[in-house]
């Protein structure tokens, strides 16, 4: 809720999302040009007369793009239209070579779906209004001449700002997923975006690499008095390509609109950009209405007909979806919601966990594997920037290390050192432990002299402990472990330390 300090009126944010996801096909939507990484490829090298919008060219629909779209629509529990129509969406912008975009409008591929997300308040079902196919635009790069002041007119004798256009992205298959206005805060918006990204990656239709622009999110946001059912004047924030930007842009816009309404002002319907450095929104253009786009059916494409056999084939090919797997991990492996959510966010991570958890061992449990993965393994991956698909540590090797630790062959501290070595070299746990002599010492007769020596070397600390300062025992424990080179069984050390300190009291 947002509250006006002046009038004490409480406002409720109402937010819907449009997500544009590039489909990970080999060729473009309506031509044979390859889909290339626009951050790496030379500009304007994957372009032909069709995607460049040359007169007399004809589009041909990419079947694989339709198959990918069906996967997403079915995973979102949408109603699939047996017939959908492509339309021309007319607007003039330098990155749109034809002067219009081929999209779907009145008759989209799918409608009325849902996606369950997890928030701090629990589960939330987000309604999906529509899922439709279209083509992407080109990419503009705005250039300020050397010495120019951004946003300031330069004068006749000074170079003016200019824009460069790259049409490599023009015509790339794009899937637009539109929600109902079901969100009321920035946290919910972020949770939905993360869940949808996870779903698209699980389906294999999008890489999820937001920094490269393959997944772009556009919130439509308005405020209304609490209790009102009418929607306020909305603004659209364009092309947010990170969860951080999405969350901060939404939070900023809620605050901005609250201040305007609190002072008696009105909200202007417009399209906004997000300045990631200043962390503010800014006006791009006054928002067009649907009539401004002058939609009409694309005359060069026949209706898209999807029969029941095609739908059944696409449905049968669906993998286990992230949310379904999240529920199963809790039920089958007795994991908590937090661990299950972390382990099912990415399909490759969930696969890795199951392979490790299903290794045969009398001491191994799924919770133990989950703890190793969400703790030490994820930390190493974050430090090195390595993804789960390319790490040198196999699921079986992680299970071996976890079993050796649980079985008392090495202690937890040593196990962390061994894991780092396994991660770096790909060597097995048993091999590293044997080569470096890291086996855990659990023999009380071997540990007792180390404890005795430690107490003899630290009479002052022993006196403090005997005088009632119980926390000194932890320090003494650390000193014994150092003498043992970290290889002593911590439980045995504590037992022996407690025994000898008790004797010292007598």
Structure description:
This protein has 506 residues and is of the alpha+beta class. It has three domains: 2-315, no CATH class; 320-436, no CATH class; 444-505, Arc Repressor Mutant, subunit A (Orthogonal Bundle). 38% of the residues lie in helices and 20% in strands. It has 15 helices and 17 strands. Strands 1, 2, 3, 7, 8, 11, 12, 13, 14 and 15 form a ten-stranded mixed beta sheet that branches. It has a three-stranded antiparallel beta sheet with strand order 6-5-16, with no helix packed on it. Strand 14 (270-275) and strand 15 (280-286) form a beta hairpin. Helix 6 (337-344) packs across helix 8 and helix 12 packs across helix 14. It is elongated and about 95 Å long. It starts with a strand and ends with a helix. The mean pLDDT is 91.
Major sheet summary line:
10 strands, mixed
- What is the total tally of β strands? 17
Number of helices: 15
**Distance, first to last CA:** 65 Å
Label the structural class.
alpha+beta
As a percent range, the share of strand residues is: 15-25%
Give the overall form: elongated
Helix content: 25-40%
Number of domains: 3
Unreliable residue stretches: none
The mean pLDDT is 91
Oligomer: single chain
Instruction: Calculate Rg over CA atoms.
Output: 30 Å
